[in-house]
Design a protein that fits this description.
With 81 residues, this protein is of the alpha+beta class. It has one domain. 25% of the residues lie in helices and 26% in strands. It is built from two helices and four strands, in the order ββααββ. A four-stranded antiparallel β-sheet has the order 1-2-3-4, with no helix packed on it. Strand 1 and strand 2 form a beta hairpin. It is elongated, with a radius of gyration of 17 Å. Keywords: Membrane, Transmembrane, Transmembrane helix.
Length: 81
């Protein structure tokens, strides 16, 4: 199952369901409509700020599972500090 968003913030993260490093994404904020409505009404800025501050969870773009932290593969072998 592939997950697609109309506007997307992308990163790389470790998916606990796929058990590998995968591209992850979350829906982005469309600032254009908010700007237009704020200029027309004035009070729309309240909703724009609320929308910008709400949590937008990251999701695996391969399986759709929610990724809680953007991190590297915890099982990868490498140098430890």
């Amino acid at each position: 199952m592939k997950v697609h968003f109309s506007r997307l913030d992308e990163a790389s993260g470790y998916c606990g369901k796929c058990l590998k490093q995968v591209p992850v994404g979350r829906p982005g904020i469309r600032h254009g409509p908010h700007l237009i409505l704020t200029l027309l009404t004035g009070f729309w800025a309240i909703f724009w700020i609320r929308d910008a501050r709400r949590p937008r969870p990251w999701q695996c773009l391969e399986c759709g599972a929610e990724v809680y932290k953007i991190m590297s593969d915890p099982f990868a072998k490498g140098e430890q500090r």
